[in-house]
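Q: I have 237 residues here and want to know how they pack in 3D. Can you give me a structure?
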Amino acid sequence: MLTWIAARTSRIKVASRVLAVPFRRPAMVAKLAASLDALSGGRLILGLGAGYSDQEIAAVGGPALSPAAKIDGLAEAIGVIRGAWTRSGYTQDGRHYSVRDLEMEPRPSQPIPIWLGAFGPRALAVTGALADGWIPSLGYRPTEEFPAMRRRIDEAALAAGRRPDEIRGILNLNLRLDPGAEPGPDSVTGSPAQVISQLRGLLGLGFTGFNFLLSGPDRASAMGQVADEVLPALRMM
């Protein structure tokens, strides 16, 4: 789907939201990402996750992993992917993912951002140490917990010798432009003015952008309203 979107556009970024690491070998993810990035003119953002559903992982023949093993595997996978993108003959010996004398051509001409969908303390620490963006989803945790989660990322970034502001915070959420719609824990609803007010509050929790999943009976019209009314107001904040 990302290839289709990239082929029919010229300016927008395309992002995976998010690829679960246990489903795919990291070296192959690196190659697929590099190819799509090259074909799209450097517009790819690679979103990764540790693997949400144990049932789905088992259904495709994946290994049974503890939560800790998933996070360790995620960190190792990022090492393989970045190594493949930047080094010739890359070797990595890991508990979950290992490669030896890995060659990948062509390599990306510029760094491909890696964003992580992370919530737990260890996953947030990996985000701060290794990722370029944090892309959680509204509704998975109470909103009042987001500032503490962001602090965990920032502390890990500093410990790794990185600047916290290098790591973008992007929030996934359902958006419905409908004053009569019932709000939910994972959604922002209301008129454009009401939606803008709610999004302003979420920006104050440490986010710098949003990934909207539009809902409602007329999503085409809603997309036009978001483009004409909501986004200009957000960009002024």
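Q: Anything worth noting?
A: The two ends are 32 Å apart (CA to CA). The longest strand covers residues 168-177.
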